[in-house]
Design brief:
The protein has one domain: Vaccinia Virus protein VP39 (Rossmann fold, 3-Layer(aba) Sandwich), CATH 3.40.50.150. Helix content is about 25%, strand content about 35%. It contains four helices and six strands. Strands 2-1-3-4-6-5 form a six-stranded mixed β-sheet, with helices on both faces. It is globular.
């Protein structure tokens, strides 16, 4: 599981709740959260959900919405923040990982100011942004990334 997401969950939630993964890929984090007792579901282009458009889950609202390494693929970036916000409970958290502007590998990255702008425009509060280096040890990768982790509350 994304270790940073797991840490975030452990800090912010006393007990498992309901979560939604936007751009779930192979649904690995969804499966891991379920193992931890969460009700968790995910959507992705690969299961017919296009996050360029607003997605409203019939199972909303959620305690946690997260989206990792998807934002840089989207033309309509603000829409991801709208989707997160509208699927969250009041007081629920949005957790996001993306590549920072200083990343040397991903050329379609974003900077902290832009991210904060998207959160604010959507009405999120308690916005927090962290940057860190992460070594991608996967076969065929083996390089450092600069990651931007942003979290905020509805
Ligand atoms: C790098 S993967 C990340 C997967 C997962 N979140 C993770 O952290 O392992 C990016 C995912 O974004 C999805 N994606 C890209 N553009 C999308 C779009 N417009 N709508 C929905 N999903 C999209 C891709 O299908 C892919 O599964």
């Amino acid at each position: 599981m994304n270790i940073y997401l797991e840490n975030f969950v452990n800090i912010k939630f006393k007990k498992p709740g309901k979560a939604l993964d936007l751009g779930a890929g192979k649904f690995f984090d969804v499966a891991c959260l379920k193992q931890l007792g969460w009700k968790c579901e995910g959507v992705d282009k690969n299961v017919g959900v296009n996050l360029e458009k607003l997605y409203l889950s019939k199972n909303r609202p959620y305690d946690l919405v997260f989206s990792n390494y998807v934002l840089h693929f989207l033309k309509n970036k603000q829409k991801l923040f709208e989707t997160a916000y509208k699927n969250l409970k009041k007081g629920g958290w949005f957790f996001l990982h993306t590549f920072d502007k200083s990343d040397r590998i991903c050329k379609i990255s974003i900077d902290e100011k832009e991210i904060i702008g998207f959160f604010k425009k959507q009405g999120f509060k308690n916005i927090s942004v962290k940057k860190f280096s992460f070594y991608d040890n996967d076969l065929g990768h083996k390089h450092w990334h600069r990651i931007l982790e942003a979290t905020a509350q509805k």
